[in-house]
């Protein structure tokens, strides 16, 4: 049994925020590319692990911190194929719409944060549906349909170890913090769908949950089993929803809701984390990003009910 190996993408120049995972069978797969700005760090990590060729670049979804560097890595490993959800595939071939959508969130910081996104030739894209497997020779990665964070999200189950690479389907958790935080970006975030996906992962009884942000949940501060992390993730999703609902009773303004989330989070943490760790958590999914996703979700619910 070969344990997956973690490559730190050093996203935004910070260690321990976003991971790629190397999975070796007779073929070699990299799960998550990181953004284009991290491509050099990922290639250096592969070199340190003695990898000079890749057969697969596998992404959980097409958000820039997970798939933005896939096209760049493909140029260095031209024999590889890129595996992605069928809904996300067209956006890897032509990332213009994806880039434009993200620009509405990140504005002038797009180039600095993400560095662009190289298109991937359609012939190099391998489309996956729920339950499809990538055969690595002696082990496989099976795609698990896990929407909620995004409609085009897959987690991947490693047949050799029983580990699930959860992307953003469950939550984010930095090992030095040990805190489960929802990842709720607009425009597709849906609380109920996200909770159902977490229960789907739980039902597979994986041996561990490995998050892109960041690593195995049974390591670091307050280590959690698969069952525990699934329970905590659902509790966090519900708690943040209740906070946003409470904030909107006074103001629906994004800045006000964001500040309310900050205050409620600090109260909930009760001073257990130092400011440096809190700042690092903000690099995984920010208060403002999460507020935007929850506000859009609740607006859709209200529109549907009217």
Can you describe this structure?
With 306 residues, the protein is α/β, with parallel strands linked by helices. The protein has one domain (5-175, 183-227): Ribonuclease Z/Hydroxyacylglutathione hydrolase-like (Metallo-beta-lactamase, Chain A), CATH 3.60.15.10. The chain is 40% helix and 17% strand. The protein contains 11 helices and 12 strands. It has helices at residues 39-48, 64-67, 70-76, 89-93, 96-106, 110-114, 191-203, 226-248, 254-269, 275-282, 287-305; strands spanning 5-8, 19-24, 28-31, 56-58, 81-85, 125-128, 133-135, 140-145, 154-158, 163-167, 208-211, 215-216. The chain has a 6-stranded mixed β-sheet with strand order 1-2-3-4-5-6. Helix 7 (191-203) links the parallel strand 10 (163-167) and strand 11 (208-211). Helix 7 packs antiparallel against helix 8 (226-248), helix 8 packs across helix 9 and helix 8 (226-248) crosses helix 11. The longest helix is centred in the last third of the chain and has 23 residues, at 226-248.
H and E order? EEEHEHHEHHHEEEEEHEEHHHH
Could you please say which CATH topology applies here?
Answer: Metallo-beta-lactamase, Chain A
Query: Could you tell me the strand content as a percent range?
Result: 15-25%
Number of domains: 1
Number of contiguous helices: 11
Termini separation: 54 Å
Beta-strand segment tally = 12
Q: How would a crystallographer describe the biggest sheet?
A: 6 strands, mixed
CATH architecture term: 4-Layer Sandwich
Radius of gyration: 18 Å
Q: Looking at the chains present, what oligomeric state does this protein adopt?
A: single chain
Superfamily at the CATH H level? Ribonuclease Z/Hydroxyacylglutathione hydrolase-like
Helix content: 25-40%
Structural class: alpha/beta
Which CATH class? Alpha Beta
Shape: globular
Mean pLDDT score, rounded?
96
Strand order of the largest sheet: 1-2-3-4-5-6
């Amino acid at each position: 049994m070969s344990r997956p190996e973690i490559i730190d993408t050093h996203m935004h120049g910070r260690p321990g925020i976003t991971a790629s995972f190397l999975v070796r069978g007779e073929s070699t797969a990299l799960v998550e590319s990181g953004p284009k700005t991290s491509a050099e760090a990922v290639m250096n990590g592969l070199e340190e692990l003695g990898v000079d060729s890749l057969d697969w670049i596998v992404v959980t979804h097409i958000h820039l911190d997970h798939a933005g560097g896939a096209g760049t890595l493909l140029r260095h490993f031209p024999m590889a194929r890129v595996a992605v959800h069928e809904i996300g595939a067209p956006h890897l071939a032509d990332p213009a719409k994806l880039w434009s959508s993200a620009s509405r969130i990140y504005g002038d910081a797009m180039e600095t944060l993400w560095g662009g996104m190289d298109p991937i030739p359609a012939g190099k894209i391998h489309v996956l549906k729920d339950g499809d497997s990538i055969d690595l020779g002696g082990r496989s990665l099976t795609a698990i349909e896990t929407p909620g964070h995004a409609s085009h999200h897959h987690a991947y189950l490693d047949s050799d170890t029983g580990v699930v690479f959860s992307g953003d389907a469950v939550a984010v958790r930095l090992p030095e913090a040990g805190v489960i935080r929802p990842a709720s970006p607009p425009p597709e975030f849906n609380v109920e769908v996200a909770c159902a996906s977490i229960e789907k992962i739980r039902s597979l009884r994986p041996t561990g949950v490995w998050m892109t942000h960041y690593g195995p949940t049974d390591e670091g501060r307050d280590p959690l089993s698969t069952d525990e992390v699934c329970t905590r993730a659902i509790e966090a999703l519900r708690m943040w929803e209740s906070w946003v609902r409470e904030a909107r009773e006074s103001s629906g303004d994004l800045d006000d809701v964001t500040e309310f989330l900050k205050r409620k989070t600090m109260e909930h943490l009760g001073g257990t984390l130092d400011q440096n760790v809190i700042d690092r958590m903000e690099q995984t999914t920010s208060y403002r990003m999460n507020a935007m996703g929850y506000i859009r979700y609740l607006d859709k619910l209200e529109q549907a009910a009217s």
